[in-house]
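Long-time lurker, finally posting.

We've been working with RSH4A protein (Corythaixoides concolor) and I want a structural starting point before designing mutants. I don't trust myself to interpret raw outputs, so I'm hoping someone here can both generate the structure tokens and explain anything notable. Sequence follows.
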Amino acid sequence: AYEHGPYQPHEPGYGLYQPGYSPYDDQIPDPKSRMLAIQNAKAYLLKSSTTSGLNLYDHLANTLTKILDEQPTNAVDIIENISKDVKWAQFQKKMDTLRDEHEILPTFEAAEKRKALFLKTNGEEELEEEIEETPLPNVMETAFYFEQAGIGLSKDESYHIFLALKKLVSVQPIQTCRFWGKILGLDMNYIIAEVQYHEGEKEEEREEEVIEEGEKGMAEVEDEDEEKEKEDEPPKSIYKPQPVIPKEENGTGANKYVYFVCNEPGKPWVKLPPVTPAQIVCARKIKKFFTGRLDAPVVSFPPFPGNEANYLRAQIARISAGTQISPIGFYQLAEVERDDEEEQGGGGDTYEENPDFQPLSVAEMVDSLSTWVHHRQSILKQGRCVWLNPFQNSEEEEENEEEEKVEDLDELQQEIGPPILTPLSEDEGIQNIPAWTAQLSTNLIPQYAVAILQSNLWPGAYAFASGMKFDNIYFGWGHKYSPESHAPALPPPVQAEYPSGPEITETRDPTLEEELAFKAASEEALDAAEEEEEEEDVEDDEEEEDD
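Top reply, 14 upvotes:
Generated this for you. Predicted structure of RSH4A protein:
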């Protein structure tokens, strides 16, 4: 390497290393001033940082000590890394620092949440010894069949849902349980379980009773206030709102099944409330994405009567009514329902498995949609599966009200939907799009293929059939297909002004002359009335004298 010799007098560096020479000698000639400058510089280097608490003087000293102790090659190239190592070594173990603290990865957090799914309780160990029938569905078997067509979740998630359903069955008095599907949300998703309670178990409806009692108490207070203010009461409106259509009883119609939801396997299951006809009717008019929070408000027009939990329940009822299908002949109507079918004017909602069912081939299941049937009741425009006359309880009302309701009854027409176990070939499509698409899971090995049906009205709804086994599932956003972009309903038109006429037209103020003339005329009328009274009194007196 080239080494520079002694500097010559004409070179810029000449004299720098001569004793008693400094480039600042001309600026600080006084030794006292030089010492003061050195002290100020050292004080500046000893100034601690407001963020880390370190000072540059100690840091440089420690850095040089580390370099001299280790003597690394090419120290000038790695001095930045050495400086970082020195800084990291200065940190001490404290409660509020992250030194030697491993970062918690999302996979580790998810594993901690699902750890409870893999733990066994004492009751579960006893049940394993006694092999009995369980309402727990075989989620992994269903996932295997749907996987043949590329439908479903990952194996890990399917197994976690399997374990979550096992926890649900062990806690709730459930007779039947089924993995309904997964509805996607903007923040979180919903994993949905469809269950039926045992016949002896009834759902709690205490909340509705408490609300009714509170309304009665408020009504009594309002009646007392109305009695006090009857004299100053303004005119009452003659408008009568439409009667509220009651919800179907638990275990029937749209409320035949109970639904539990959770955002992730391992989180607690939450039971959804029963659905009402008003919620179903309004859900058909709006289209909202789910957020993943059951208590989130549903801001829409027309206003939805409830929060996201009610909207989710309404969409589940609509999807189930339109996409729950089975091979023809697998189910048959119950004997009790066959007798009541003619009386109700439509099919019942109770069905049972056909012991004489003979499965069709996969090719036949794909070739014709008439080999599949709906085994759920369809929902009418009223929002119920069985039509209800809202004016049927009007015997105790007044005659006038009864006459008005008779006119309304003439306008109302009883709705009758398609009976249960109706073939899919009768479903109406949208424009030129059929309601269903049937296909084999694979064309390469058709002898081992599975029949797959996909709903075009509700994207995300699928069904499979293979021999005696079939199932339905849903993976989607919970929206019905629409060929046109969704347009919210417009508000009603502005109400017209009340027609003006002589009865409501304000009269003009009379002039002074008119007031004086009116006063004079009224005085004359009073005088004439007094004279007539006097004449009548005189005639009465004369008649008494004659008698």
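Before you design anything, note these points.
The radius of gyration is 44 Å.
Residues 205-221, 341-346 have pLDDT under 50 and may be disordered.
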